[in-house]
Design a protein that fits this description.
There is one protein chain. This protein is mainly alpha-helical and 435 residues long. The protein is built from 19 helices and 6 strands. The strands form 3 sheets. Strands 1-2 form a two-stranded antiparallel ribbon. α9 links the parallel β3 and β4. 39% of the residues are buried. The protein binds arginine. Arginine (ARG) binds next to α7.
Length: 435
């Protein structure tokens, strides 16, 4: 029997029922639904809208339901319409009329809006802890590889010398910004929609401030239409999550490159790599590849939410029921990726000799060579040109700037002296830049 059965003369068709039901997706919000209902019932009693005795029965009943769901004693009915319906029905079955009073001055529209916010608030906390864990691992790795000189790239061409530590520090910056973005989003979403009812609030003397405070919201929504139809917070979070996935995916791409024989800058721990069913020699960076691949899911979730909302007239529309699948999937995916990615990174070993070898080819100290001449008073453009000639000479002779005899240097520009060799030493280049 549906909550709204009064107006209807027939039971819903089975297909309609299944199609309409969101229980498979929203049952995970049972604790938040109960928390919201407890705050609502307590407020109703405090405002004299329901009796204290009814409120007490409701609160105890809901707490019992929560405990039983958690212990497995009460199974959530997969045939129920949604989690709100299921819990209200279970409550009424237990406490009778008092249960039927719970929904006074409330609609599932403000109820679901509260539930999602409470649920995602928790998800944000978990995700922030995960990101902090990842940052910690990166900090440790950076400390470990402070002295590991490697080529820095632009266009994936060797460009200038850096250290592996410095490369890792770049990712710390990205993940710190991700944390900041989540904190900003959290602030904006921490507004209670409770009391907005279906769309136009309620005529009862409710106290929205009381429920907002009880549920840990900073304030309550000023406009009831907006309160029930706003899913900005879902879109905003999905975009934060998408950016996190962009960062993880870029990092994954680099790890995939670095583990290849062409680079061999890092070695993944056996426990975090996989083999091939046919090629006995293979050790594949599957975790990194999956993280790179799963970024597509999260971007898809963001697109789902944007597309879902863009044409909806105010206020609630059933389309919005689709919001949860997308935003939950985005959180689940990022959570799963970080669970695999962080330990993979923690156990990853760098191979500094290989990095150093790669850094020694490709003339990545050419800029420094030009800077040396600038130090001797030559304008940078002229210094750049002279160094270009030196690089061409080295390529012709199959040598490097480090090994080119001073006489050759001086043939190109007489300002060169013995000091150039120390100046263009990769370690010196890196040190001068503070990397
Ligand atoms: N399951 C619904 C959702 O997730 C709850 C709100 C239902 N409201 C309604 N007016 N039918 O959006």
């Amino acid at each position: 029997m549906k909550l709204w059965a009064g107006r209807f003369s027939k039971e819903a068709d089975k297909t309609t029922n299944d199609f309409n039901s969101s229980i498979a997706v929203d049952s995970r919000m049972y604790a938040q639904d109960i928390e919201g209902s407890i705050a609502h019932a307590t407020m109703l009693a405090a405002c004299g809208i329901i009796g204290d005795e009814d409120a007490k029965l409701i609160v105890e009943g809901l707490e019992g339901i929560k405990a039983e769901i958690e212990s497995g004693q009460l199974q959530i009915d997969p045939g129920a319409e949604d989690i709100h319906t299921f819990i209200e029905a279970a409550l009424t079955e237990r406490i009778g009329d008092a249960g039927k009073r719970l929904h006074t001055a409330r609609s599932r529209n403000d109820q679901v809006a509260v539930d999602i916010r409470l649920y995602l608030r928790e998800e944000c906390l978990t995700l922030k802890e995960q990101l902090k864990g990842l940052i910690e691992v990166l900090q440790k790795k950076a400390e470990e590889y402070k002295g590991a000189v490697m080529p820095g790239y632009t266009h994936l061409q060797r460009a200038q010398p850096i250290t592996f530590a410095y490369h890792l520090l770049a990712y710390i910056e990205m993940f710190e910004r991700d944390l900041g973005r989540l904190t900003d989003a959290q602030k904006r979403m921490n507004v209670s929609p409770l009391g907005a009812g279906a769309l136009a609030g309620s005529g009862y003397p409710i106290d929205k401030g009381m429920t907002a405070a009880a549920l840990g919201f900073d304030s309550f929504a000023k406009n009831t239409l907006d309160a029930v139809s706003d899913r900005d917070f879902c879109m905003e979070l999905a975009s934060c999550l998408s950016i996190i996935m962009v960062h993880l995916s870029r990092f994954s791409e680099e790890i995939i490159l670095w583990t290849s024989w062409e680079f061999k800058f890092v070695e993944l721990d056996d426990a975090f790599s996989t083999g091939s069913s046919i090629m006995p020699q293979k050790k594949n960076p599957d975790i990194a590849e999956l993280v790179r691949g799963k970024s597509g899911r999260v971007f898809g979730d963001l697109m789902t939410l944007l597309t879902l909302m863009k044409g909806l007239p105010l206020a609630y529309n059933k389309d919005m029921q689709e919001d949860k699948e997308a935003i939950f999937d985005a959180f689940d995916t990022v959570n799963l990726c970080l669970q695999a990615f962080t330990p993979m990174l923690a156990t990853m070993k760098a191979l500094p000799e290989n990095m150093r070898k790669a850094a020694a080819g490709g003339f990545i100290n050419a800029t420094d060579c030009a800077d040396y001449l600038v130090g001797k008073g030559l304008p940078f453009r002229d210094a750049y040109k002279a160094t270009g000639q030196l690089v061409a000479l080295c390529i012709e002779k199959g040598t490097t700037l480090e090994e080119l005899p001073l006489a050759q240097y001086q043939k190109v520009c007489e300002l060169f002296d013995q000091g150039v060799y120390e100046f263009i030493r990769l370690e010196a280049c890196v040190k001068r830049r503070g990397l």
